[in-house]
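Input sequence (434 aa), recorded before submission:
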Amino acid sequence: MLNRRALLGAGMLAGVSACTATSPAPPEAAREAAFDPSDWASVRAQFALDPAYAQFAAFVLAPAPAPVRETIRAHRDALDADPEYTPPGTRSPDQTIREAAARYLGGEASGIALTDSTTMGLGLLYSGIALRPGQDVLTSEHDFLATHEGLRLLAGRTGAKVRRVRLYDDPATASVDRMVAAVKEGLGPRTRVVALTWVHSSTGVRVPIRAVADMLAEANKGRDERDRALLCVDGVHGFGAMADGVADLGCDFLASGTHKWLFGPRGTGIVWGRAWDAVVPIIPSFSQAAFDAWQSNAGPERSPRKSTAELVTPGGYKAFEHRWAMTQAFGFMTAIGKDRVQQRTQELATRLKAGLAGLPHVTLATPRAPELSAGLVCCSVAGLQPFEAVRRLHGQKVIASVTPYNPSLLRFGTSIVTGPEQVDLVIKAMEGLR
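Predicted structure, token format:
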């Protein structure tokens, strides 16, 4: 008989049916609504967002498109009918997800750990990276709480020094050369971790990760493998919005939730890595290797000696109906085309920035250049606090957000659920905030 271990995707029950004899028939594949990925109106129609509002905060806790919602519903109903249910046609649901993520990222499935969020992914990295005496960590002043707190906790456990560099003074005038130079100047001979964010949620600045990676490759020449500076990236506000794969970025680790710009199921995320030997698992894994070692009862030496993405993936029971629908999110965005998504996102952002820059009472914080920004557009309004601006914009049928930093800024996100007409509505509404 199938038992609940099959839910873990560890492959321990190879050859056993995915349903018990008493289970109801597995749900049919989620029926997608009529969908033309080449038509932006059709793309927008896949979302249940209120059409009366211009949705410029969809990235905060993103809505899922119809194929993802229907897949979640199908798995949820099947689990409610039979708690022994697993998706049909696969021995390892987690492996299926890894393979879909790898196709989207351009990496290997074996390099992908599954998480619940960007914060969890960063926590697994910064808790698990083993630092040797004298090694230190470098980050920026502009990173989010998840990075700063993760590194503070790391320092508390290891005594490692954590240093911060300032990548720019005025985000609107940030430059590639200045950002790369700041990281290079902050780098020490024993720096083991360089923790950066791809797109700053505070300002909308897109950090030139590839250029930083190239600089670090030069700095790492001649270093012992255990002293090589590892580039760890919080990628959440670029992942799904930008077309770059892991080969394009050149980083060692990329952590991201899949419930933001990818518009995947809530409570899901990934960490891609190419240096898992440097990371010690923090939460017990439910992988095949972990179960084999545990069941062998071989004493303290039974645990696998080589760390892998699968071993770093936290075990335990999840909201599996959400996790199992991640494959539909990758498929949805792939059908539209990663390059088309980036082009759409940046064209709308450029249009919005141009309009806001023409308003005398608005100060744009995000760089105008597309190569230094993504879909986030941040600004301030003279004489108006960001939360008040959000409230007043809501009355004009525009949904915006506030950056969770000090000082805070008003923030918009252009994406596949917005269009030129909504951008123009934002500009008109902002013109009235005097």
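Checked by second reader. DSSP finds 15 helices and 13 strands in the chain.
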